[in-house]
Write a structure and sequence with these properties.
The chain is of the alpha+beta class and 164 residues long. The protein has 3 helices and 8 strands, in the order ααββββββββα.
Length: 164
């Protein structure tokens, strides 16, 4: 029932957009384009000796205030990073990065859970690093870390550079 209501709502929105004058549609598209971002993420699992044992690269599109999710799933590891860019009045970006990690040891049924959240003021195009497990070289800590290299670029710039 809720799916039907949602589809009816989408059809009504679409029809209302079609009834707008061309210049208003153009203004709406410009507004969307000015608030759109390309979020490029390189995720790595790094052993204590700073050797990357696994990596993944992904690029997702979003708009200011809309979260994208990056998931890493392994035999004894599940990690989720939620990244939300917010356009600031000075055209800088506030990137809110939230990480959740579940780790199980071989033969153990219980998972260890860790979560973190960071608010990172960044400039468009700069690379920032986010460590959902934190950074530690202690012997009792997991023998690896998860590193996310994140680059948030305005969509129009990403298209010009060919990253989209």
């Amino acid at each position: 029932m809720t799916k039907k209501i949602f589809f009816v709502f989408l059809i009504l929105v679409f029809l209302s957009i079609l009834s707008l004058p061309a210049d208003e549609i153009s203004d709406l598209l410009k507004l969307l384009d000015n608030n759109a971002y390309s979020v490029h993420v390189i995720a790595r699992v790094i052993q204590q000796n700073d050797v990357s044992v696994w990596d993944m690269e992904i690029t997702k599109l979003t708009i200011s205030g809309k979260t994208i999710t990056v998931r890493l799933n392994g035999d004894n590891l599940r990690a989720t990073a939620e990244l939300t860019p917010y356009k600031q009045s000075d055209n800088s970006i506030l990137l809110v990065a939230q990480g959740q990690v579940w780790i199980t040891s071989p033969g153990d049924q219980n998972a260890k859970y860790s979560s973190t959240i960071q608010s990172l003021p960044i400039r468009a195009g700069d690379k920032v690093y986010f460590y959902p497990l934190g950074v530690s070289k202690k012997e009792k800590e997991p023998p690896f870390s998860i590193e996310l290299e994140i680059q948030v670029t305005p969509y129009e710039v990403a298209v010009q550079k060919g990253k989209q």
